[in-house]
Amino acid sequence: MSTKSLRTILTLVIGLGLLAGFSLAQTAEELIKSGDEYYSKWEDQKALAEYLKALEIEPKNYEALWKASRGYVDVADLMTETGKEAEKQKFDMYLKAERYARQAISVNPNDTWGHFFLSAALGKKVLMLGKKEQIDASKQVKAAVDKAIELDPNNDLAYHALGRWHRRMAEIGGAKRALGSLIYGSIPRGSFEESEKWLKKAVELKPDYINHHLELGRTYVETKKYDLAAQEFNQCLELPEASAKDKQLKEEAKKELASLSKQSSKED
Question: What is this structure's pTM?
Answer without folding.
Answer: 0.83
